[in-house]
Amino acid sequence: MNEEKIRQYGDELYECFVARKTVPPLLEREPDITLDDAYRIQLRFIERRVQAGERIVGKKIGVTSKPVQDFLGVFRPDFGQLTSGMVYQEGDIIDLGTLIQPKAEAELAFVLKHDLKGPGVTAMDVIRATDYVVPCFEIVDSRINDWKIRIQDTVADNASCGVYVLGKTKGDPRKLDITLAGMVLEKNGEVHSTGVGAAVQGSPANAVAWLANTLGELGIPFKAGEVILSGSQSALVPVVDGDELVCTVGGLGSCRVKFSGRSAVSAPARPPEGGALPPPGRMSRSDRRVVQ
Amino acid sequence: MSGEAIQSNELTLSREDIVRLSERVEGAQTRAYAIPKLTDEYPAMTIADGYAVQTELRRRYLAAGHRLVGWKAGLTSKAKMQQMGVNVPSIGFLTDRMARPENSAISTADLVHPRVECEVAFVMKKDLHGPGCTREDVLDATDYVLPAVEIIDSRFSGFKFDLASVIADNGSSARFVGGGRARYVEELDLRTLGVVMEKNGEMVAMGASAAVLGHPAEAIAMLVNILADMGEHLPAGSFVMSGGITEAIPVKPGDSVIARFQELGSVSMRFV
Description:
The complex is a heterodimer of chains A (292) and B (272).
Chain A: H1 3-19, H2 26-29, H3 35-51, E1 56-62, H4 66-72, E2 78-83, E3 87-89, E4 93-95, E5 103-112, H5 123-129, E6 130-140, H6 151-156, E7 161-166, E8 182-187, E9 190-196, H7 204-217, E10 227-232, E11 237-238, E12 244-249, E13 253-260
Parallel strand pairs in A: 1-10, 3-7, 4-13
Antiparallel strand pairs in A: 1-2, 5-6, 5-10, 5-11, 6-7, 8-9, 8-12, 12-13
Helix pairs in contact in A: 1-3, 5-7
Chain B: H1 15-31, H2 47-63, E1 68-74, H3 78-84, E2 90-95, E3 105-106, E4 115-124, H4 135-141, E5 142-152, H5 163-168, E6 173-178, E7 194-199, E8 202-208, H6 216-229, E9 239-241, E10 249-250, E11 256-261, E12 265-271
Parallel strand pairs in B: 1-9, 3-12
Antiparallel strand pairs in B: 1-2, 4-5, 4-9, 4-10, 5-6, 7-8, 7-11, 11-12
């Protein structure tokens, strides 16, 4: 894909982000779009946000569970950029009016105390470089009509990143079993779904190591102080005005988030054709559909 | 599972029917063959009828020299309860003949279509009596908790049944393996224990313990209250399984299974 088109799609997604509207999937309009093209479009999208005054504060890792990878027909995660405009503090109320078709997912976030530069980074290096981990919510959002995403669409759209909230209980990964720590997601006081760290690439540290190596190939290091959202351990939860979600990581603590207002598009009543993204803990055969 | 909500909970079966059905279930359990669900012949069967058959089945096993070692709760996830149209779990009894040691080879020749699920198990140090048993009562009466794998095996064709039939079939109980690490409940958050089940080295199911009624001790409290309805109690020393955290995964000869629990270690077994 030529530079002009990369720029055009990156600008289009940025304009959708600003105006809170959606566009048809890129793959429908550009059947030959590659993953490489998609990451270049993402860079342009983020470049526009940075030009408008935001800073890059970290990374998010997506598509980390086997059911979601099978659904999207890929064999590795993807990533997006976290910017200063996406940050909420625990206790803040998230204004849905700033989002398009938001859904929440519960994750473990890593904050680094040392730089980490691939290639050659292992999960052990990740633990060594980690200052602390915290439970967090990522509120994903899509600038693509009805979440009808394929891997190229979500990558170009900054891995469908919306906003995120870090919990306040910091844990040392040397004192916590991040692989077997349970994840309980409650919605309005009731258990909505449960998960476990291992749902993310066998361990959240594996996902962070993957990204360190992937970025390393592009010459980009993780910097001390950066936040890395390691990938969803819960089902995707559509949120509306008045909803309150709590995620609790076993042995660590909780992150609580409230929502108010109305998003630009309410989440589709029924999943789009081809089905909705499956939750990470569901491993049954019926979910192992390879689309594409 | 399939089936419609059963509203009535009156005993409808005659004593003769109860004995006949318990013999039928015992035959299917002992000789490992599938039978049609009992409600095909007795469409009006209620939950009370199911427990009457289960109680008769238990009486027969104990008379044959089996030892009652504890109980299990089933249908403990909200999804399963909604599917069966109930708001309480079901229960079944456990005998010494169903126990298998950790890390052993478990025969499938004497099972119909076994499936495995991960559970938190409780061992009691005090008697518990319902009605009105609470989560706090359960925690107070618990000696320790440990990780367990339940091997369930519905004796009904195609694992298709309704609530009355599955209760009569002792909640699909077949085998169980306790193991891992015994822990005091005071030292754990029993809501947030993460669990991963691996079959032949691949993760096949995962979750956290809150998947069981929000807290596994809640399932034990409900079990004690169901026992009270039947005029019974949960004695000290009982081994009690609180219900599947993960979905049930089919197993066959050659499969190797390991259940890994946060804070509780792991339980492994292989099937031959």
